[in-house]
Specification:
Organism: Rhodanobacter hydrolyticus
Structural class: alpha/beta
Strand order of the largest sheet: 5-4-3-6-7-9-8
Number of helices: 8
Protein name: tRNA (guanine-N(7)-)-methyltransferase
Family: Belongs to the class I-like SAM-binding methyltransferase superfamily. TrmB family.
Strand content: 15-25%
Helix content: 25-40%
GO molecular function, one term: tRNA (guanine(46)-N7)-methyltransferase activity
Radius of gyration: 17 Å
Shape: globular
Catalytic activity: guanosine(46) in tRNA + S-adenosyl-L-methionine = N(7)-methylguanosine(46) in tRNA + S-adenosyl-L-homocysteine
């Protein structure tokens, strides 16, 4: 669902290379928005959207309540996020996606059922995590079917890398859950290797083990298409464990 993009050689704001800036959560393949998707931005962005400002957000004020916050990075067309937020009204959902048509489609779906517990970014997830999400904010983070970057020379562009999962851990509430999923076995193996070596994450199943698909991750159109092509699917579940 989400893509990654490497910005090798591009400096950060103060002109120096920055390790986190080299991992982007997307490659921008915008595509054309339908009239309905464009209307979603015109009519619903003020309600569901958060404009990136580079400063820490008060999400309790955004949602007008205090509730656990679940973040999905790279929600694609929003099918899974829409379902999860509708069936888990006790928690608030934060979606991050750079693909305009997907954001527009999801906003239309949210507006149709008058959703109250979803807010969306159309921005790079790394920058949102670095600058807008304060430490200890997230109860759960989901990254489902990110771009696997199949070619070996592109593997470094994968979003699941040690600096990224360390950043993510710092934004989690104690014991917060990270749920990863992929239908590309080499990427599943890469995810497992990175996560097992991460000092502030603990495998909820057992060391080195994948998880069964949890009930809260619905089978999306994207996944069904992959299964028809003979792809497997691997889920990984980790809890944030502060380093003592």
């Amino acid at each position: 669902m989400s893509d990654t993009h490497d910005r090798d050689g591009e400096p950060d704001h103060d002109g120096h290379p920055h390790v986190m800036r080299r991992i982007r959560s997307f490659v921008l393949r915008e595509g054309r928005m339908t009239p309905a998707q464009q209307r979603a931005f015109d009519e619903h962005w003020a309600r569901f959207g958060i404009d990136y400002s580079g400063g820490a957000q008060d999400y309790a004020a955004r949602f007008e309540r205090n509730a656990p916050l679940v973040m999905e990075i790279g929600f694609g067309n929003g099918e899974a996020l829409a379902w999860a937020s509708e069936h888990d009204s006790a928690r608030d959902y934060l979606g991050i996606e750079v693909h305009g048509p997907g954001v527009g489609r999801l906003m239309n779906a949210l507006a149709a059922r008058d959703a109250r517990n979803v807010r969306l970014y159309k921005h790079d997830a790394v920058e949102v995590l670095e600058n807008e999400i304060a430490p200890g904010t997230l109860a759960e983070a989901r990254i489902w079917f990110p771009d696997p970057w199949h070619k070996k020379r592109h593997n470094k562009r994968r979003i699941i890398q040690p600096p990224f999962v360390a950043l993510l851990a710092s934004r989690m509430a104690p014991g917060g859950l990270l749920h990863l999923a992929t239908d590309w076995q080499p990427y599943a193996e890469h995810m497992l290797e990175v996560m097992e070596a991460a000092p502030d994450w603990r495998n909820t199943i057992a060391p080195g083990q994948y998880a069964e698909k949890p009930a809260w991750r619905i089978e999306t159109h994207f996944e069904r298409r992959g299964l028809k092509l003979g792809h497997g699917v691997w889920d990984l579940l980790y809890r944030q464990t502060p380093i003592k």
